[in-house]
Design a protein that fits this description.
With 460 residues, the chain is α/β, with parallel strands linked by helices. Helices cover 20% and strands 30% of the residues. It contains 8 helices and 26 strands. Helix 4 packs parallel to helix 5 and helix 5 packs across helix 6. The protein is globular, with a radius of gyration of 24 Å.
């Protein structure tokens, strides 16, 4: 929850979530500080995939509890209501949305294939099990139903495989022995025979380094990846093959290097790792949040932010966090401005690096990558905007009544709510002169699109 960036057979896969987009809320303040943002549009510094916003469907059963709360209910792979209209409409709204099927219990999942040799039972609570749960099983009938949803919504699917199958526990938290691939192979074979849209098979969940609950040595992990890639090559033949990605865990430089050395070239198509910048999501205050807020704010990112990432400079408060991309579909650029200050608003002037370079000969200096002496009342976006008629589009997200815990989010002051049928409401911008500063209120987010911004890297 892009997935892929880079070139060649090895690409870095990051899973970027947008929790801040669900939590920031605004309080209008007359106090403000000036900030200058200079966007460098001559070249991109990175790129994301079209499925940068993504989601995970986890395996936790209703009995999973933390912090005296048991919030999972019917939200797992095994019991999610696949007929809920909001589910399908949310996935379709992103067109496409990458969905990762996986999580903590994936390394205890069995697949109900004909040769399983065991009853295909769900997870049960057991104190002796990993994460205090037994092994659980997904039937092929349930897998068919899930793929009906994926096929009907155009989801891009990453499926996390059980990488502990066949291993034994050497000591607490450490597992050894080779991977038993027989059950996974039969499951992959069934999936391939049905032409289900698996974009990538991910091997294991948080088993890298010291692991979370369990770990596997990098050398053995690399050998097992060779086995998995061989299975994928054999079962998919000359058809388009899903990627093999791993390890889906916390980054440990030594462990990752050993993994790549052990697996060798042309085995691992993408490296995946997990980052919990904002913690593990254990804050009980989020239980009453309206999930539509996260959906709609992430949808704005998906609709507005292109795949090209641009460099920028900022002069001003560290509480204003700017991010610049090539705009999606419309040309020009798109910015996300996060105001993390509780009481201070920011008046943001956006300038094109081209104009700053030209102006240096007219008494404007660049010191320590920041520009001083620029007129704060002018926002240069390039010569195309010099006639004064250029417009920009603004989408300001804030909380109703300025309450950070409000269940309703506002877009440009208008409440944003899903309909009873789960339909997405219109997401309309306000048009503003491109050459005026942008006011970003305290604890709010602003998406801003400059269609006429001269950015060579964005094809203009």
């Amino acid at each position: 929850m892009p997935p892929f960036a880079g070139s060649g057979s090895m690409r870095l896969w990051c899973i970027f979530l947008l929790p801040l987009l669900c939590q920031l809320a605004g309080v209008r303040s007359e106090d403000y500080s000036d900030v200058t943002v200079i966007v460098r549009g001559s070249e991109t510094i990175a790129s994301t995939s079209g499925e940068f916003v993504c989601a995970t469907i986890d395996w936790w059963p209703p009995e999973k509890c933390n912090y005296d709360q048991c919030p999972w209910g019917r939200a797992s792979v095994l019991n999610l209501d696949l007929t809920n209209p909001l589910l399908a409409k949310a996935i379709q709204a992103f067109s496409p949305l990458r969905i990762r099927v996986g999580g903590s219990l994936q390394d205890q999942v069995l697949y109900g294939t004909p040769n399983l040799g065991l009853p295909c039972d769900p997870f049960t609570k057991v104190s002796s099990g990993l994460f205090e749960f037994s092994q659980g099983c997904i039937t092929l009938e349930r897998w068919d139903d899930i793929n009906d949803l994926f096929l009907n919504t155009g989801a891009v699917v990453t499926f996390g495989l059980n990488a502990l199958q066949g291993r034994h526990q050497i000591r607490k938290g450490v597992w050894g022995g080779p991977w038993n691939s027989s059950n996974a192979r039969e499951f992959i074979e069934y999936t391939a025979s049905k032409n289900y849209p698996i974009d990538s098979w991910e091997f294991g969940n948080e088993l890298s380094g010291s692991g979370v609950g369990a770990s596997v040595a990098a050398e053995q992990y690399g050998k097992d990846l060779v086995v998995l890639q061989t299975i994928v090559n054999e079962l998919y033949g000359d058809s388009s093959k899903p990627l093999v990605v791993a390890p889906g865990g916390f980054y440990d430089q030594k462990w990752f290097a050993q993994l790549l050395e052990a697996s060798g070239p042309n085995v691992l198509n993408a490296v995946t790792h997990h980052i919990y910048n904002l913690g593990a999501g254990g804050d009980t205050t989020v239980l009453n949040f309206n999930p539509g807020q996260c959906l709609l704010s992430a949808l704005l990112w998906h609709r507005l932010m292109g795949t090209g990432v641009l460099s920028l400079d900022i002069s001003g408060s560290p509480y204003l966090r700017p991010y610049a991309h090539c705009a999606k579909q419309k040309g020009g650029i798109a910015l996300v401005l996060l105001n993390l200050h509780r009481t201070m608003g920011f008046m943001v002037s956006v300038r094109n690096d081209i104009n700053v370079n030209l102006a240096e000969g007219q008494g404007i200096r660049r010191d320590n990558a920041f520009v001083h002496g620029l007129k704060r009342t002018v926002s240069w976006v390039g010569s195309k905007a010099s006639d004064g008629f250029s417009k920009r589009e603004e989408y300001h997200l804030s909380a109703q009544d300025g309450n950070p815990f409000a269940r309703t989010m506002l877009l440009n002051g208008v409440p944003l709510e899903l309909t009873e049928d789960g339909d997405i409401p219109p997401l309309y911008p306000v048009e503003v002169s491109a050459n005026s500063p942008i006011y970003v209120a305290p604890l709010t987010i602003a998406f801003v699109v400059f269609p006429d911004f001269e950015a060579e890297a964005c094809g203009r």
